[in-house]
Design brief:
Number of strands of chain B: 7
Number of domains of chain B: 3
Strand order of the largest sheet of chain A: 17-15-10-18-19
Number of helices of chain A: 16
Strand content of chain B: 5-15%
Oligomer: heterodimer
Largest sheet of chain A: 5 strands, mixed
Helix content of chain A: 25-40%
Radius of gyration of chain B: 28 Å
Order of helices and strands of chain B: EEHEEHEEEHHHHHHHHHHHHHHH
Distance between the termini of chain B: 65 Å
Largest sheet of chain B: 5 strands, mixed
């Protein structure tokens, strides 16, 4: 939506395509906040924000992109506020900011613990104001490539049925992540990596796909997100004995170390028998009813609804859960991909500002800052260039593939593959990774991909055929998962979210201080590397 | 656990409707949405419903269970299954059904758009490049309204919309209040004018179903009441609904009871009321309309006047006064608030008291300000520097 608003304001003729209504997007589930160095709560500046981000990325983030990001973030936040975002306030009426993991200053602007929700609302309000048309519940499936550039998207019209091709001089992908590859995930059902898969199938490079962030506090057993803001407000992580174990892993930052560090610490506690039912406890009792109700009402509601626990009186069982893809479609600092006319922004893209580990609060900010930049550059290209031409063959080919899927009269139901994918990814490609586990996972994924052409869609109708779209989503998840694990196997080091404590426990800047690039070639994955862009900061040991 | 569901299936192509029963095996923690997923995956792939976040924030999965709107992802099924109940699941009301549990949301969104759902900056702008300065207390006025996730549960249940499909409805009006109550908005009077028109705030029948069924505690009826109060405070009271409400106050204040005979002319105006003469005569015949002049004054009229005084002192003339002090999500009861932390830690079966490694478990819970440890403040070594 941010990209659409910017492109509209630049004078372009814009429409949005979404498989959900725009306000149903998963950014709305973000809770804790959005980072910008406003310096409202304590001294802060974009340079410290950039440094924290670089360090958090385990030095794999591209520093020029990170500097742009930190520099432009405050202006973007002010604009959102001026547009009407309902943020939490300080006593003097300025925007409130709270501490977040691995941040040098309380930098996270928030709205209680529903920050994503208020941002989604304000962006949708601005889209309504501009009357930007939306192709709602259009399931984007394939990019239209013609004449060496991207000229549109082939979609399945969920509500009415049928393929609809939307032509455009430029296309901006903002399709989010693929957390549904894992059984335990904070992600919505919609997060199935559709945009990444579309780009992959068009032969485009995906960057740093092995880096999957595990959020330290997802509610047991469902994996629903409990915000980092709980720890930002002073919440403790304790093991079964009540020990605040983070002191042993991150003696300075404790619970507010970066997410990869906290998730590994929790997993170690659990693996070594100091957890409870495969989880540790998130304790807010000492914060008191008033603070919990004022600052963390949504988290309390989630804990009460899904775990039957009132955090005012009892700690909440949490464990690491799949949360965020640091990697994605490779773009430049203006969101442009390798394919002319195609742009990407947000979680589906990899600029890269997150490198090997993202800081809490940086993803919402990324969607805004780089959404704006991508929207601007996509509009400028579209306004400077001429025609759109969608060859008939594109839709015909798509139609025949689709018919093939729909006409199949028997086969395997997609849920079986989806379940095996979710369980095996969690077992073999989660917080800790081993050579054996990853090799096995590649085999499992290849097995699933072999079975995939045989999946059976039971619903044969046209109207709201989500059975069909879910089958397509499964294919997208399988293909992107294969990229992740394949890239993971060859990264023989531990960096950020990619932790191999048994065979390669340390970071190896000598051999692996580079991005991994995966792309589809001749029916398989081709792996290459690209350089990390440095400006100011030399890699150092990373301690919290 | 074993869960049985009856689901109203609807095929828009043929118009066929059928109530089908499904029996499934689900994990104990399953929600209604989880159960629908099991039905779709393992029993009938053609079942249609919307879903996405499964954590009460995206607003996709509004539907009806036993005739009342719910968010499927919020509805835990354990107790229902244990009681052996077989709930009936159907699509939301007041919106056309597309297929099974999926409704056409277009009418919903066109009403949303009809209230001008975006901030219209006023004359008072913040200095360039800065935020508006708004104390939290002032921002709290629209706290509940800004929780709305557009799920449609309130619209589904709205009785007024059932009789007037063009009624803006609880969701759109709550959204309207979100702007009317926002000190940054510069079009408050225009908004109140527009929301006070036909199909606007005075159409609401005050049945409170929207408050009752909203899964997020937005309390749309309260928002409509706040809009009414704000409209009157701004002198926007031409609508019969506003006049009707004003007469209630005037009547109870003067005589301590509601003088219904005068209510009609006060609301509709003299000319229009003349058309009701026959009805009035009928009422009088049955001793239902008091025509005594001067009207009877209730013995305890002072009580009515005091009540009015209290509300005036509380400054309940506008939206600010209508915030009851409750904070929507926070309304979830939390037992006896009087317990000290020590007592909470000492509750039977309580999780152990937190302690830092190296400290005895009996002491030290660390410091609340530990969050301020600032790893980023270490000197940042620049590339190329020694």
């Amino acid at each position: 939506m941010r990209a659409a608003i910017e492109a509209f304001d630049a004078g372009a003729d814009v429409a949005m395509i979404s498989k959900l209504h725009p306000t149903r997007s998963h950014s709305g589930a973000a809770e804790g906040g959005i980072n910008a160095a406003l310096g409202n709560a304590a001294e802060d500046n974009p340079e410290i924000h950039a440094y924290d981000t670089v360090k958090g990325s385990d030095y794999l983030g591209d520093q020029d992109a990170i500097e742009i990001f930190a520099e432009e973030a405050p202006g973007d936040i002010i604009q959102l506020e001026n547009w009407g975002a309902v943020f939490s306030r300080r006593e003097d009426g300025k925007l409130a900011q709270r501490p977040f993991g691995a941040a040098g200053s309380p930098r996270t602007v928030y709205s209680a613990d529903i920050t994503g929700h208020v941002l989604i609302q304000v962006l949708w309000e601005q889209c309504c104001k501009r009357d930007i048309p939306v192709y709602e519940e259009f399931f984007a499936w394939q990019l239209v490539e013609n004449d060496g550039r991207c000229q549109g998207v082939v979609c399945w019209d969920l509500l009415h049925g049928g393929l609809k091709t939307v032509g455009g001089k430029t296309v901006v992908l903002a399709t989010g992540g693929a957390g549904r590859q894992y059984r335990v995930t904070t992600n919505a059902y919609a997060c199935t990596g559709d945009g990444m898969a579309m780009a992959l199938h068009a032969g485009l490079p995906l960057k740093d796909m092995e880096f999957m962030q595990f959020h330290p506090t997802t509610l047991y057993p469902t994996g629903i997100l409990l915000t980092e803001g709980i720890r930002g407000e002073g919440g403790y992580l304790i093991n079964k004995d009540g020990e605040r174990f983070m002191k042993r892993y991150a003696p300075n930052a404790l619970e507010l170390a970066s997410r990869d560090v906290v998730s590994r610490s929790e997993q170690t506690e659990i693996d070594e028998g100091r957890g409870i039912d495969g989880s540790v406890l998130l304790d807010m009792r000492h914060l008191g009813a008033e603070r919990i109700i004022e600052r963390l009402p949504g988290s309390r509601e989630l804990a009460m609804t899904y775990a039957g626990i009132d955090p005012i009186y009892e700690p909440v069982p949490v464990r690491p859960g799949a949360h965020y893809h640091m990697g994605g479609i490779e773009t430049d600092n203006d969101g442009a991909t390798e394919l002319t006319g195609l742009y990407a922004a947000g979680e589906c893209a990899c600029v890269s500002i997150h490198g090997a580990n993202r800081l809490g609060g940086n993803s919402l900010m990324e969607t805004i800052t780089f959404g704006r930049r991508a929207g601007r550059s996509a509009a400028e290209w579209a306004l400077a260039n001429t025609t759109v031409e969608v060859p008939e063959a594109v839709e015909r080919d798509a139609e025949s593939k689709l018919r093939d899927l729909l006409d199949r009269q028997d086969g395997e139901r997609p849920w079986k593959l989806r379940e095996e994918l979710g369980n095996s990814m969690l077992e073999n490609f989660a917080v800790f990774r081993t050579e054996d586990g990853m090799t096995k996972q590649v085999e499992i994924l290849e097995g699933l991909r072999e079975r995939y052409p045989n999946v059976y869609v039971e619903d044969k109708g046209d109207v709201f055929n989500s059975d069909l779209t879910q089958a397509i989503e499964l294919g997208n998840m399988l293909d992107t998962a294969l990229c992740m694990v394949t890239a993971g196997v060859v990264r023989k080091e531990s960096r950020g979210a990619h932790a191999r404590p048994h065979d390669y426990p340390t970071r190896d800047d000598e051999n692996f201080l580079h991005h991994s690039i995966t792309r589809w070639k001749d029916g398989g994955i081709e792996l290459t590397t690209s350089e990390v862009r440095f400006t100011h900061w030399e890699p150092q040991e990373r301690k919290y | 656990m074993q869960v049985a569901l009856k689901i109203w299936r609807y095929d828009s192509a043929t118009g066929d409707r059928a109530l089908k029963e499904y029996e499934i095996e689900a994990p104990d923690e399953a929600t209604l949405l989880d159960c629908l997923d099991i039905v779709k995956d393992r029993h009938d792939g053609s079942l249609a419903y919307r879903k996405s976040c499964r954590m009460m924030i995206c607003g996709s999965c509004g539907m009806r269970m036993d005739g009342a709107a719910v968010l499927a992802c919020k509805m835990r099924m354990y107790d229902i299954a244990q009681d052996g109940r077989v709930p009936v699941i159907s699509a939301m009301g007041n919106l056309p059904i597309v297929k099974d549990l999926v409704v056409d949301m277009d009418p919903f969104w066109s009403k949303f758009k009809a209230v001008g759902p975006w901030l219209q900056p006023g004359y008072e702008r913040p200095e360039d490049g800065r935020e508006y300065r708004i104390p939290q207390e002032r921002a709290n006025v629209i706290h509940k309204e800004s929780l709305c996730i557009n799920c449609g549960c309130c619209v589904s249940e709205c009785n007024a919309m059932e009789s007037d499909p063009e009624f803006l409805g609880p969701q759109a009006l709550a959204k309207g209040m979100r702007f009317v109550g926002d000190p940054r908005d510069g079009a408050i009077v225009e908004r109140l004018e527009s929301y006070s028109g036909e199909h606007g705030i005075w159409e609401c029948t005050r049945c409170f179903f929207c408050n009752e069924r909203c899964p997020k505690g937005v309390d749309p009826r309260d928002a409509i009441a706040k809009l009414g109060a704000e409209a009157m405070a701004h002198g926007i009271d031409r609508d019969m609904g506003a006049k009707h409400a004003k007469w209630f106050i005037r009547s109870t204040e003067t005589t301590g009871w509601l003088r219904e005979t005068e209510l009609v002319p006060k609301t509709q105006g003299i000319v229009s009321s003349l058309k009701q003469t026959k009805f009035a005569i009928n009422l009088a015949k049955h001793n239902k309309a008091g025509l005594a002049f001067p009207p009877h004054v209730a013995a305890h009229v002072e009580e009515a006047r005091n009540l009015r005084k209290i509300t005036q002192e509380q400054d309940r003339g506008g939206a600010l006064g209508h915030v009851q002090g409750e904070r929507a999500l926070a309304r979830l009861a939390h037992g006896d608030a009087g317990e000290s932390l020590e007592e909470i830690y000492a509750r039977p079966g309580a999780a152990p008291r937190p302690f830092l490694p190296g400290e005895g478990s009996a002491q030290g819970q660390g410091s609340l300000t530990q969050a301020d440890v600032t790893p980023g403040k270490e000197p940042t070594r620049k590339r190329g520097e020694a």
